[in-house]
Amino acid sequence: MNHGKFKKWAETLQEENHTKFWEKIFDDDHEEQNDTEADASPQIVNEYRDYPLIDVYEWANQLLVVIEIPGAKRTDVELTMHENTLHISGSSLLTVKDANVLHKERREGTFQRSIILPPAVGEAPCHASFKDGLLHVKFDL
């Protein structure tokens, strides 16, 4: 390790210009630009990239897709297939009334997600069931 370079770097951090550099980086114009960028993406329906959570299992003659959607009812979820891509969209509501939220990790609101399945699934008959926040979609291969 070159201690001379480290010492010079540490001394630079002490200088007044260092403080001005960081103030310039985090000025008000920069914050406004970030707000504008966030407002420019209304097409993002699901801020949670991998929601709802999906597991896919395969057997010799069957494929099972399990989709976890807590707080949703069967009527809140829409499934569509296009070729071998399963599209899931809908909404879930986990609201507790008349309480202050101190900590929240569970997801609620609208969502949409697509998952590409093996090509044989595109023509396969399927059956769906929904119970206890889990949507099971079975494909007979």
Automatic annotation (TrEMBL):
A UniProt-annotated Pfam family: HSP20
Entries under InterPro entries matching the protein: A-crystallin/Hsp20_dom, HSP20-like_chaperone, Small_HSP
SHSP domain sequence ranges: 44-141
Source domain of life: Bacteria
UniProt record similarity statement: Belongs to the small heat shock protein (HSP20) family.
PANTHER family, sorted: HEAT-SHOCK PROTEIN 20 FAMILY MEMBER
Name of this protein: HSP20 family protein
Organism whose genome encodes this protein: Priestia aryabhattai
Lineage, uppermost ranks: Bacteria, Bacillati, Bacillota, Bacilli, Bacillales
